[in-house]
Amino acid sequence: MVADLYRYRARRYGLVLAIALIGGVFGAHRFYLGKVATGLAMMVSGGGGLVWWIVDLVRLRSMVQLYNDEEARREASGLPPQGMGFLPPREQ
User: Fold this and answer.
1) Looking only at Cα atoms, what is the longest distance across the chain?
2) Among 42, 49, 68, 90, which is most exposed with the fewest C-beta within 10 angstroms?
3) Residues ≥6 apart with Cβ < 8 Å to 32
């Protein structure tokens, strides 16, 4: 049960793209990728007048890859997933 808390859950490009198309102007895809501060900034600015949202659509694949790479690094070092950062490191 505890091991499930520390299990890495990859984000899929297709799902993130769907989220970005539906609620991306309000930063929904950034919230899903753990970028809360910039998600809030996007929400307040309406996607930066749509410019920020369009740039994010172009960069989306690399954003997902960066998130997944960071999660894999955390898992390899025994740290919990980014969203569960309050948990202590796992004993190895």
Assistant:
1) 47
2) 49
3) 11, 16, 19
Alpha carbon of residue 42 to chain centroid = 14
Two structure tokens written together for 92: 């190895």
Q: Each residue of 12-68: pLDDT tens digit?
A: 999 999 999 999 899 999 999 999 999 999 999 988 888 999 999 999 999 999 999
Cα dihedral sign, 27-30-32-35:
negative
Q: Determine the 3-state secondary structure of 17 from DSSP.
A: helix
CA distance linking residue 54 with residue 29, whole number of Å: 12
Please report which residue ranges of the chain form alpha helices under DSSP H.
2-5, 13-23, 28-32, 36-49, 51-76
pLDDT value for 77: 83
